[in-house]
Amino acid sequence: MDVLVNRPKTQRGEETLMKICVAAEQVFFEKGYYGASIHDITRLASVASGTFYIYFDGKYNLYKFLLLQYSHEIRKHISKSIRGCKNRREAERMGLKSWLEYIREHKHMYNIIWESLYIDKQLFVDYYANFSKYYVEQLDAAKAKGELIDVDSEVLSYVLMGVSNFIGLNWVLFKDADNFDYVVDEVMKVFDRNIFAPET
């Protein structure tokens, strides 16, 4: 990640970097990657245009930096939420609910992440492949404990990511729901019948 950004060495520099990133999220969300300009970003961030280049070589590096930040922040948030879960079923339920709650506060992420498919397909592929790799490790551990049916962990990881993404689209972006207990419980009914071993 550091090759994408020139990391500041002072607190003030970190604050300026954060202002640029926050502004970029808003501009990319409103105008899209191709409609956004560095001038738009620096103007919203209230920094000089030249200041941008202290941190980033260009708009692409900033965009890729944001994607990597999202991946890290989402995994960190979900990992924290499932800490202490007794089994994979509890982890999946808590993970889905925490994802929905997180994306409700960061709706712009959908637009920015999915637009990467049209900016640089490999960015999009890598984004979900990295999530899958992280997921597979957890699923393999759960299978070793007999908590899941015998199914390819990579395939299952994409099934679970697909469920989370489209449940999020419908109940967060489209319906703007503020309580997710019902939909999470309904999803778990599907999971109970199809992915969890009977003894769990």
From TrEMBL:
Q: Give GO terms: molecular function aspect only.
A: DNA binding
Q: Does the keyword DNA-binding apply?
A: yes
Instruction: Tell me which residues form the DNA-binding region.
Output: 37-56
Domain HTH tetR-type, first and last residues per copy? 14-74
Q: What InterPro entries does the record point to? A: DNA-bd_HTH_TetR-type_CS, Homeodomain-like_sf, HTH-type_Tx_Regulator, HTH_TetR, Tet_transcr_reg_TetR-rel_C_sf
Q: Which UniProt keywords apply?
A: DNA-binding
For this entry, the protein name equals Transcriptional regulator, TetR family
What lineage does the source organism belong to? Bacteria, Bacillati, Bacillota, Clostridia, Eubacteriales
